[in-house]
Amino acid sequence: MNNILKIALPIVIGCTCSVNAVAQDFTTVTAGYIAHTSDTLDENKNQFDRTLLTVANVRAKDWGRIATVGIFENLEQSSSDPQAEALGEAWSTFKFAGVAHIKTGFVPGLNYMVDEFFFTNTNGYENNMKIGLSYDMTFGAAKANIGAGANYVSIDNAGAKFTGFSGYALNASMQYPISDKWGLSFIYNGVFDRDEEHAIGYTDNLDGKQHDSGYRLDLAVNYQFSNSISACLVLRQLDSWYGYKTGKADMMVLMTSITF
C-alpha cells in the first residue's frame, strides 16, 4: 500500500469521500468512538458520545474514482436523554456517504462530481446530493481536491420537511504523507444559502436566528501499523450541520481500521 493510499484512508472513513488519486482499489472496516467537549453537549442537547462503525470502499480507474461509505452510529443505543430521544438522535442511525469524481477528459485534473450524504433513524431521514465540478491538485507530496456544486435535498426529520434545490456546497480536502507510517489530512465541507424549510432547527443559541449555512472541519492524523491495520485521530468541528443545531460543536473521533 503506497503513501497516497494510506493517507486517503481517514478521508474515506471520515465520510467526506473526497479521495484523491489512489493506486488501487480497497475496502476498509473501521470501529471508533465519538467524544464531545462538555460545552458542545451543553449547547447541543440532542447529542451525546457514541460508537461508530464504518465500511468504506474505493474504486479508482482511468476514468476517475468512486468512494462509498456505510456508517452505523450508536449501535448500542447508549443515550437515554429525553431530548435526544425526542429528536431521534438517541436511536441507532444509519448513514451513507458516497462521491464520484469522473474525469472530464478536456482539462487535466478537472472532474464531474456527484457527492451524496444520507442518514436515517427512527425520527426521519435527510438526503443531500451535491452536483458540480471538482479539481485535483498536487503540491509536492501533498494531494488536494476542491469541489463545488448545487445542493439538492430531500428531508423529513425533526420538524423539517423539504424537497428541492437548497443553496450550494463547497468541499476541500488535502492529504500529506509525513512518512511511511504517519500522515495528515484536512477536510472542509460547507453548505450555504440553505432554504428556510431545509434549515429548520439550525438556530443560534445566543440570538435565536436561523442559520442558512453550516460546515464541517476535520484535521486528522493517521498511523499505519502494517499494510492492513491503521489508527486515526480526528479533531472535528461542526457548525449548524449534521444535526448539531444550536452552536459550534467540537469533538474528537478515535478510530482503528483494517484494510483489504
Radius of gyration: 18 Å
Separation, N- and C-terminal Cα atoms: 10 Å
Arrangement of strands in the largest sheet: 1-2-3-4-5-6-7-8-9-10-11-12
Q: What percentage of amino acids are in beta strands? A: over 45%
Tell me, rounded to a whole number, the average pLDDT.
83
Largest sheet: 12 strands, antiparallel, barrel
Number of strands: 12
Helical content stands at under 10%
Helix-strand makeup class: mainly beta
What is the number of helical segments per DSSP (H or I, 4+ residues)? 3
Principal-axis shape equals globular
The helix/strand series, from N terminus to C terminus, equals: HEHEEHEEEEEEEEE
Which residues sit in consecutive blocks of at least 5 with pLDDT less than 50? Answer: 1-13, 15-23
Describe this structure in words.
The protein is mainly beta. It has a 12-stranded antiparallel barrel with strand order 1-2-3-4-5-6-7-8-9-10-11-12. β8 and β9 form a beta hairpin. The longest helix has 11 residues.
Summarize the structure.
With 260 residues, the protein is mainly beta. It has helices at 3-13, 38-43, 82-86, and strands spanning 26-36, 50-61, 64-73, 93-103, 110-121, 124-139, 142-157, 160-177, 182-192, 214-224, 229-239, 249-259. Strands 1-2-3-4-5-6-7-8-9-10-11-12 form a 12-stranded antiparallel β-barrel.
Name the features.
12 strands; 260 residues; 12-stranded antiparallel barrel; disordered N terminus; mainly beta; 3 helices
